[in-house]
Design goal:
Blueprint lengths: L8 E13 L2 E8 L2 E8 L12 E6 L19
Antiparallel strand pairs: 1-2, 1-4, 2-3
Length: about 80
């Protein structure tokens, strides 16, 4: 397993699904933060990555993107 990026982050999870997409393989990983989807090139060594396997996802801070859902409306107080 490659080392965690300096100043980077990590998240523990379990592979729930593996989807082959031509040149890419998509991994759906269940984590404490919810489901994360990760992509790997098929020329990378992914032979041991299968559904049910526990993994550690790592990434550098500059590779982080946060997507939000709809904002809840605040209730009016009288």
């Amino acid at each position: 397993m490659p080392p965690e990026p300096v100043g980077g982050s990590h998240l523990l999870g379990t592979i729930a699904e593996v989807v082959y997409l031509g040149m890419l393989t998509q991994f759906h990983v269940d984590t404490a933060a919810g489901r994360v989807v990760s992509h790997r090139m098929n020329d990378e060594n992914t032979r041991r990555l299968e559904a049910g396997r526990q993994v550690v996802l790592t990434w550098a801070p500059e590779d982080t993107a946060v997507l939000g859902g709809p904002v809840a409306e605040e209730s009016a107080t009288a």
